[in-house]
Amino acid sequence: MSDALPRRKRLGDVLIDKGIIDEDRLRTALADQRESGALLPEVLVRLGYVSEDALAAVLTEWLELPFMDIGGYKLRVSNEVFGILPQNTIRQYRIVPLAIADEALIVVTAAPLPPDVVKELETMAGCEIKLHTGRVSDVKELLGANFGLE
Q1: Model confidence over 102-147: pLDDT tens digits?
Q2: Over the chain, what HEC string results?
């Protein structure tokens, strides 16, 4: 018997189950993802298969995370937070570390992160990570403004 945790559904399957996309659109998006290297949520929004608000709502419900509306803010990551996570990690997972609150690092993401990645981030940060979901474009904008990432 395996001690592995039960596997969580994939985002594409959740979107199909909710009737937001169909299997053909998922296949197209996955092919685009393989070519572009972008995260699936970014591809789905870029292709117009799902709105940013609908995607954020699905992620918030599915992952049971709070939503953070960071749109329209010209947020700057504080010097206190800036160096906590390596930039290559921020780039790889397309996450935005925003602040420290109650001895935890507040991180906004527009894509699901596997539990082992969250644990890895906590080890790197040396504190608890409190994830929030956000819109794809807002996360991309903050990555660009704070970390020079597109």
Answers
A1: 899 999 999 989 889 999 999 999 999 999 999 999 888 888 887 7
A2: CCCCCCCCCCHHHHHHHCCCCCHHHHHHHHHHHHHHCCCHHHHHHHCCCCCHHHHHHHHHHHHCCCECCCCCCCCCCCHHHHCCCCHHHHHHHCEEEEEEECCEEEEEECCCCCHHHHHHHHHHHCCEEEEEECCHHHHHHHHHHHHCCC
In terms of pTM, does the model score above 0.85?
Answer: no
Residue 64 resides in a domain = no
Say if 63 falls within a structural domain. Answer: no
Residue 107 lies in a domain: yes
